[in-house]
Design brief:
heterotrimer, A mainly alpha (311), B mainly alpha (349), C alpha/beta (254), A: 3% strand, globular, C: 6-stranded mixed β-sheet
Chain lengths: 311, 349, 254
């Protein structure tokens, strides 16, 4: 075995690690984007504050872990708290904006971002904080001989898949899910559904909120928590929604995985080109924004997204 | 009768108010402290950005979340032309910044205008982030931290105005007046466009894009023209920022900048051309007051936006007691009876 | 080929078809429209009449077949390009620029086809010729007064007249009128009927209409569309006598 073989071996290990990272990132993206796409598809609302819900989840994880010493309490608390927060927001603000102009929705939710950031500064300050991985999952899992991957990341992948499956069954197999699908495909159906529409809006918004909060909690040990952390994720989630097609859960799932992989691989391998001349700089710049380039290409090809039908 | 131009003041009193406002700005440095001269320069820069965006939002009905990209790009162009220690004259930097932004707007517009509504919002947002990440992730413009630049020289026809030769209290004046002149010129240019046949076509596109296409208008080309003009004007605003602050960083390109410009429009009034200026001034003043009273600046900012969205749907210039009030609701304004004229000499216009 | 000879044919479709995801809306429709002719297309609901108009106007792209406008293949041309070549249309559902004045609606229609772009930066009030074109189109469509009104505030019938005026202001060779009588009262309807007869002299008019009595009274030629395909085409009397048409469509009406 020469040194060349060893280098190739470590390269391929790194590749597997990046692929797993991309998968895990994509699944977290799905949790955030699925709420976003449902809220837009069913209610017709552009919610820029959806990323703030992710941030709220992450900070909730940080604060609860600090108080109780473990992340385990944060998960059920975040799920229930997220549902309650979502229901409260829908009832007090969002239901009144369902029929308003896009511009009004953009402004309302922009205001909520600012308020959420200020609230965050008030409660937790402006510092970076790391959140410890739960002790139970703080060990490497051997994947192949000589390569191991974090158990917590595996757990996140598993939990996200479980939640995705639950979402899928809820949307595809229940009566409420059928109504939500119908509403997402054709908003006028909601008017025909009459009184039911209010309940559907409330449930959709609450579930979307809870998923974003849970995603924030799961991400906290991986990324640490910091000011403005919801912002970057928000934009990427919108890219996921646009590529997946508005209102489509299946579309959101596949495009989240695609974006997760493209973004992770682009950021992992792109910067290597930096400093290899002007072309290298261009590639490096492009790799950081590969998801946006991907979205632009998709939209040029299909102006309503890969899975989208409505214009 | 061609009818009124919706975004412009509807009465002589309204116009008087606009010119009175500009006259007050021209006189202000004689009465204000240097701090306020600087603050108003900032407000005028923000007003220029919002005004350029209003051509799209109020003029054509296109809500873009990527307008900040053209603003920031122009500031970076000033940085590339005149990095720290190598100042260049304004007659070079301003046209270069505007042309660069216009070119970017032409390319970005040609792609994003293929989409509509929500998708347009998202694509412009994505393009904005694309430009952002270019400056954020590479060393081109100093990376995350940004960079200092040499402020463009105020020179024309071989004569250069050295601000350092002025008394300390008046050093901010030249930049102030450069901003004011640009703001007035921009307002004049947009008034001219809105009144022209081009402006009428844009209004038609805003009201009913599909019908305009059936009438034989290549609406895509008109929208692209408006997008490019708006981009160039945003470039002038970005140049102004570089000129006043002497500093660039990626935040200038980010989508928060675009959202703020939209906010200024909404706050001032989406239905008027003067609205974005009023909104920008109101917001920057409020911010200044808020900063003196509390450390929680964003709290005030957020609350103001909430109030504007919830309570004041036509913005400040849409308040009923102002004389340049645009008619209450679209489609219910000036009436001519449909009955045949009583007199032979009835003239419609 | 038509008897009239191809020289006077202004609009021709050749085996025009359109399907939406496997469902055929228009099947291999071939028809011609000649100068000075009023050609009516009739058919039951869902026969593909509106799809046909939208194909002709360029709002939809055909699945197969060709469209020839004044000897030029326009199948690949976009909506606004066809308007420039002399095709103007009215819409089945009133489609106007609601917040602009009546005159401005029609003036824009005139501007679209005749204004060189260099003049775009001028104020519209100076374009006397455009305004004159607009006023005469309005007068032609029966809207003599109230040109300064906001179009959205007009009564329904007047908005239908405005639709026609907008189409006329483009000085088209071919007029596509999609149910111009839809939602009109009997009195207004009669006025429009008289207008259509007078228009047919100068333009080639393709008329989509529901009102059978009206169609048989004004049309020079009829095409009956059933399930997207041409069932019969010819002079009103011949079509009325056609057994298939009677069985399939006219039934009790005739």
């Amino acid at each position: 075995m020469g040194p060349g073989h060893k280098a190739r071996d470590s390269k391929s290990k790194q590749m597997v690690a990046q692929l797993l990272n991309g998968l895990q990132y994509g699944l977290l993206l799905f949790l955030v984007a699925s709420g976003l796409t449902l809220v837009f598809g069913v209610m017709g609302i552009i919610n820029l504050a959806h990323g703030s819900l992710f941030m709220i989840g992450a900070y909730a994880a940080f604060l609860l872990t600090k108080m109780t010493g473990t992340l385990w309490l944060a998960l059920p608390a975040g799920l229930l708290g997220g549902l309650a927060l979502g229901a409260a927001l829908e009832w007090s603000l969002f239901r009144h904006f369902a029929k308003r102009e896009h511009l009004d929705q953009v402004m309302l939710t922009f205001a909520l971002i600012l308020l959420a950031e200020e609230l965050r500064a008030l409660v937790a300050g402006n510092d970076f904080h790391s959140v410890p991985v739960p002790a139970l999952l703080d060990f490497p899992v051997p994947v192949t001989s000589g390569f191991a991957y974090s158990a917590y990341r595996f757990a996140v992948i598993g939990l996200c898949l479980l939640l995705a499956l639950a979402m899928f069954l809820w949307i595809e197999r229940t009566r409420m899910g059928a109504k939500i699908r119908a509403a997402a495909e054709n908003p006028e159906v909601v008017d025909i559904l009459g009184l039911d529409a209010r309940r559907i809006h409330l449930v959709v918004f609450a579930v979307g909120t809870a998923l974003a909060v849970v995603a924030g909690i799961l991400a906290a040990p991986l990324t640490s928590v910091y000011p403005g952390m919801g912002d970057g994720l928000l934009i990427i989630s919108f890219v996921v929604v646009v590529i997946g097609g508005l209102g489509s859960i299946a579309g959101a799932f596949w495009s989240a995985l695609l974006i997760g992989l493209v973004d992770t691989l682009g950021k992992a391998y792109g910067p290597a080109f930096q400093g290899t001349g002007p072309l290298g700089t261009l590639v490096a710049a492009g790799s950081g924004s590969s998801v946006y380039i991907l979205m632009i290409i998709v939209l040029l090809w299909r102006p309503t997204g890969l899975f989208g039908q409505r214009t | 009768m061609i009818g009124r131009v919706r975004l412009l003041p509807q009465t002589g009193a309204g116009w008087a108010l606009v010119w009175l406002g500009f006259a007050a700005l021209a006189a202000l440095p004689f009465f204000a402290t240097p701090f306020y001269v600087g603050l108003i320069t900032t407000a005028m820069t923000a007003a220029m950005l919002a005004l350029s965006l209003q051509l799209l939002v109020g003029g054509v009905g296109l809500v873009s979340l990527g307008h900040g990209a053209f603003y920031g790009l122009a500031a970076y162009i000033v940085y590339f032309l005149s990095p720290e220690g190598a100042a260049k004259p304004i007659w070079l930097t301003l046209p270069a910044a505007m042309c660069g932004s216009a070119l970017a707007a032409l390319v970005i517009g040609a792609i994003s205008l293929r989409t509509k509504g929500f998708f347009f919002l998202m694509v412009t947002l994505a393009f904005g982030q694309l430009v952002y990440s270019v400056f954020h992730d590479t060393k081109l413009g100093g990376g995350t931290d940004g960079a200092y630049l040499a402020k463009p020289l105020l020179s024309a026809f071989g004569f250069t105005l050295e601000t350092t030769s002025l008394p300390r209290s008046k050093r901010a004046w030249p930049v102030y007046y450069v901003a004011l002149v640009q703001l007035v010129l921009m307002f004049g240019l947009l008034t001219w466009i809105l009144r022209s046949m081009l402006g009428r076509v844009l209004e038609g596109v805003r009201v009913n894009d599909g019908r305009m296409r059936a009438l034989g208008f290549n609406t895509f080309a008109y929208k692209l023209a408006a997008f490019t003009i708006a981009g160039a004007l945003a470039g002038a605003a970005g140049h102004m920022w570089a000129m006043q602050s002497g500093f660039v960083n990626p935040e200038l390109v980010g989508w928060h900048r675009s959202a703020e410009a939209l906010l200024h429009i909404l706050l001032g009034g989406i239905g008027t051309l003067a609205g974005p200026i009023v909104g920008a001034f109101a917001f920057i003043f409020l911010n200044d007051v808020a900063q003196q009273v509390t450390e929680r600046k964003l709290l005030v900012e957020g609350a103001v936006i909430l109030a504007a969205v919830l309570l004041m749907r036509n913005g400040i210039t849409g308040l009923r007691w102002l004389p340049n009030l645009p008619s209450a609701k679209e489609g219910t304004a000036p009436d001519h009876d449909l009955a045949p004229p009583q007199k032979e000499a009835h003239v419609d216009d | 080929m038509t008897e009239a000879g191809s020289s006077s044919v202004l609009l021709e479709t050749v085996a025009l078809s359109k399907s939406f995801g496997g469902v055929s809306a228009v099947r291999s429709v071939s028809l011609t429209l000649s100068r000075g002719e009023l050609h009516a297309v009739i058919g039951p609901n869902g026969a593909g009449k509106s799809t046909l108009v939208n194909l002709l106007a360029g709002l939809l792209e055909p699945t197969s077949g060709r469209i020839v406008l004044d000897k030029r293949d326009v199948t690949q041309l976009r909506e606004h390009q066809r308007t420039h070549l002399g095709l103007a249309r009215s819409f089945q559902r009133t489609n106007i620029l609601g917040s602009l004045t009546v005159l401005e609606n029609v003036r824009l229609a005139a501007q679209a086809i005749s204004l060189p772009w260099q003049r775009l930066t001028r104020p519209p009030d100076g374009e006397v010729q455009l305004i004159e074109t607009a006023r005469s189109a309005l007068a032609r469509a029966g809207l003599e007064y109230g040109h300064g009104r906001i179009a959205g505030t007009l009564a329904h019938g007047q908005q239908r007249q405005l639709e026609i005026a907008m189409a006329l202001a483009a000085r088209p060779k071919v007029l596509l009128l999609d149910e111009p009588l839809a939602g009109m009262g009997p009195e207004e309807g009669e006025r429009v009927a008289a207008l259509l007869k007078s228009l047919a002299g100068e333009h080639a008019v393709l008329l989509i209409e529901h009102d059978m009595d009206f169609v048989f009274a004004v049309a020079d030629r009829l095409t009956v569309l059933v399930e997207g395909a041409v069932l019969a085409t010819g002079r009103p009397d011949d079509v009325r006598a056609n057994v298939e048409v009677q069985a399939a469509y006219l039934g009790g009406h005739a």
